[in-house]
Design a protein that fits this description.
With about 200 residues, the chain is mostly helical. The chain folds into two domains: about 55 residues, no CATH class; about 130 residues, Orthogonal Bundle (hpI Integrase, Chain A), CATH 1.10.443.10. It has nine helices and seven strands, in the order βββαααβββαααααβα.
């Protein structure tokens, strides 16, 4: 299995991501806040979504019966249909349940958008930003981590650190080019040599 190190830098700036325990702390606070908040944040994390992409989701994009979600990503990324999953080991990561609970409570205001504002209609990305910032702050996160884009970096970082095949990480994040995924990974000459020796031992 390929050994990797997580790249902490991107374009000269540190990529902020949440440790797994921090993700759970945020989800715990979000669930305490409400079904909408829990559903939005667990969906953003598990699919590596930008704030605008979360706000752009439509009710029609979600098919809970078949456990799928259509995602139209921005900035030239892929349009994907991804699984809406449960999580037996950690209830806070049960996206299927979170979305089901939100749909049960979601006001029928005639809006096509999945996540609506408290006043009705589409939730704006700035509203989501403020909401996430407040929840993350209550969860005790450092100020630089209180930005919803940290969720996308977190998913990428966690998948890479778990040695998930990079092609699969690329697909889950909706990247068109593998180079966008590779920014989360750095390797050393020593790691490359060790991996090569191990592979050749297996082949020969």
């Amino acid at each position: 299995m390929q050994s990797t190190q997580i790249a902490r830098k991107h374009q000269g700036m540190a990529m902020q991501y949440l440790e797994p325990a921090e993700v759970l702390s945020v989800l715990r606070e979000a669930k305490a806040k409400g079904a909408r908040e829990w559903a939005m944040i667990v969906t953003a994390y598990k699919h590596g979504l930008r704030a605008s992409e979360v706000c752009n989701l439509l009710v029609g994009d979600l098919d809970l019966k078949n456990g799928s979600l259509i995602i139209d990503r921005l900035k030239g990324s892929l349009r994907t249909t991804q699984a809406v999953t449960e999580h037996r080991g950690e209830p806070l990561l049960n996206e299927h349940r979170a979305l089901r609970e939100w749909l049960r409570q979601r006001p029928n205001d005639g809006s096509d958008f999945l996540f609506t504002s408290q006043k009705g209609g589409r939730l704006d990305r700035t509203q989501f930003f403020r909401l996430f910032k407040a929840i993350a702050g209550h969860a005790g996160l450092a100020a630089e981590k209180c930005h919803p884009h940290a969720l996308k970096h977190s998913l990428a970082t966690h998948l890479v650190s778990a040695n998930v095949n990079l092609a699969l990480v690329k697909q889950q994040l909706g990247h068109k080019a593998i180079g966008s995924t590779m920014r989360y990974v750095t390797t050393s000459d020593q790691q490359a040599s060790k991996a090569t020796a191990s592979a050749l031992m297996t082949i020969f």
